[in-house]
Every structure is written in structure tokens, then in C-alpha cells.
Amino acid sequence: MYMRLSGSDLRLLKVFDAVVRHGGFAAAQAELNVGPSTISNHITALEERLGVSLCQRGRGGFKLSEKGKLVFEETQRLLRHMEDFSVGVSILKGKLVGEIRVGLVDAIVTDPGSKLHEAFATFLSEPNDIRFEVSQYQPQELLQRVLNGTLDVAVGSFPHKAAGLTYRKLHREQHSLYCGSIHPLFGKEQEELTLEAITSEDVVGRGYWRDKHHEKLGFRNIKAIVYELEPQLILIRSGKFIGYLPDHFAESWVSAGHLRCLSPLAPTFDCEFDLVSKKGIKPSQALSKFISVVESTHLQE
């Protein structure tokens, strides 16, 4: 005999969905706005209602059971259908509705190639009842969150592409090599600088780049690793490291006399920025429209 869902069942399934997406009870607290003991009680009630064990929790951490994985897949399917129904009814009123979760890499607001602010302005100029959730993560975490459904779309530069995703090209970002004002290279005359001397310096690199990336540029002394641009800038300004930064991000610091650009003597490189979404999932009308607006905005000259 099949199970008839009630309103309380739907509430329990939404709690379960949030817990799985966030990877545990504690991490789901902010979204659910309740404490971990309440969340635990909800999961226990859902397990009793379904008659299966959904997950392991405790000192070993949160982990879905095999049946829990199947329930999560069905839960996501159910919630998508419910969202589609709400959207379909609202379309009759001539409005775009729903929630769109967008992930971004750090330090792109000064990039003249990024037209995201224009895309948001264009999208939101039409009648809508959209709730945006915009967050910031490292490139590989963005891809993982789009894959697991925590994010609907992500914008960033992704050195290592993940399968199961669609990548739409938006723009390119140039990176050059920089040193801080108290670094020995800062005060040297241009004719004194050699590529050999520059590549022998200690470098702060990024953890999401493979070693071959640094070696291709001629650097082997990677003495510090970061995952965001602001920590990289701090270490470069310490005078103990040189490192690559996006030119738009470094521009104001160069103008203020805090950084020196060591390129084009040192090689530069470009990063391609993509809009990423998950393959095989039919987007809502609102999400499809948002993707289209972001893409078309960046194609405009």
C-alpha cells in the first residue's frame, strides 16, 4: 500500500532535504532556523513514518544510508514538482517566481568584463517574485554544489572542469605577476630585472591550480598556498612572496604604490569565466530566464 503524504510529512521531508544538502544537522540550522535537537527529532519522526533508517549521526558524522539516498532522490523530485506547480500557477499572473541560488568566486566586482550587476538589473526589471540567495565559494566547491543541487548556477573560472555540468562562456580575466612595496624586487630598475631572478623568488600560489600550472609559468618555489585572492594579496604585501593576481583586482593597489607589476617581463595568462548549471535537470522558467539574461548580457559589446 502506498503512502499518502500529509502536510506534516512534507515539513519533515523539507527538513531532511536541508540536512542532506548541508551535510549534517548543525550545518542546516541556519536555513531551518531551529536547533540540532529539533532537527534530530524531525528526522527520527520521518524515519518512523517511512519505516526505514535514513542516516547515521553521531561522533562519526552525518552519513546517508543506502535507503536514505533513495529517499533523498525522491524528496528532491517531489520538491521540484511542487516548485514547478507553484511556478506554473504564478505564471498565469504574469510573474516569474521562485528561488534562484547563485554561487560566485571571490573578487570579481572590480572586473570590467563581469556584467553580473547588469544581468541582475535586467532580470529584475520584469514583474517577479524571485528570492535570490547569492553566496561565495572556491571554484571546485562551486562545481560540487551545483552538482549536488545546493546551488542552481555558479559563475567563476574553473581550472578543472567537472563532468555532468554545462559551461557557458562569459568573459576572460587577465592575471599578471606582482610584488609588494617592501619586496626586494619592488625598488629595482627595470633593466636590473631578469626573468631568471624573478622566477627564483618564493611564490604564493593557489590551491586549486595544479603544480604544472606554476611550472608552465616558470615557477618552482611555491612556498605558500591560498584559496582566495584577499589572503594572496596579504601575503604578497608582506614582502616575502610574489604572486599572480587579476589585473583589475591589483589596479588600485598599484596606483597607491603598494604593489608593482612584474609583467610583461614575467608571463601573463588569461582565465576564462563560465556560467555553470547542472545537466539533465529541467530548469524552472525563472532560472532559464536568468541564465539567458546572464549569457546575453555578457555577449553584448
Detailed description of the structure:
- There is one protein chain.
- With 301 residues, the chain is an alpha/beta fold.
- The chain folds into 3 domains: 7-86, Arc Repressor Mutant, subunit A (Orthogonal Bundle); 95-172 and 272-299, D-Maltodextrin-Binding Protein, domain 2; 174-270, D-Maltodextrin-Binding Protein, domain 2, CATH 3.40.190.10.
- It is built from 11 helices and 11 strands.
- It has helices at residues 7-22, 25-32, 36-50, 66-91, 116-124, 139-148, 195-199, 211-216, 229-237, 247-255, 285-299, and strands at 55-56, 63-64, 96-104, 128-136, 153-157, 165-180, 203-206, 222-226, 242-246, 259-261, 269-278.
- Strands 3, 4, 5, 6, 9, 10 and 11 form a 7-stranded mixed β-sheet that branches. Strands 1-2 form a two-stranded antiparallel sheet. A two-stranded parallel ribbon has the order 7-8.
- β1 (55-56) and β2 (63-64) form a beta hairpin.
- α1 (7-22) packs across α2 (25-32) and α5 (116-124) packs across α11.
- The longest helix is centred in the first third of the chain and has 26 residues, at 66-91.
- The chain starts with 6 loop residues before the first helix and ends with a helix.
- The model has no long low-confidence stretch (mean pLDDT 89).
> Helix/strand-derived class?
alpha/beta
Please trace the helix and strand order, writing H or E for each element. HHHEEHEHEHEEHEHEHEHEEH
What would the principal axes of the Cα set say about the shape? elongated
Average residue-wise pLDDT: 89
CATH class of the largest domain: Alpha Beta
Proportion in helices:
40-55%
What's the CATH topology name of the largest domain? D-Maltodextrin-Binding Protein, domain 2
What is the CATH-assigned architecture of the largest domain?
Answer: 3-Layer(aba) Sandwich
Strand content: 15-25%
CATH level 4 superfamily of the largest domain: Periplasmic binding protein-like II
**Separation, N- and C-terminal Cα atoms:** 60 Å
Described by strand count, sense and barrel closure, the largest sheet is:
7 strands, mixed
Total number of strands? 11
Contiguous low-pLDDT stretches (5 residues minimum) are: none
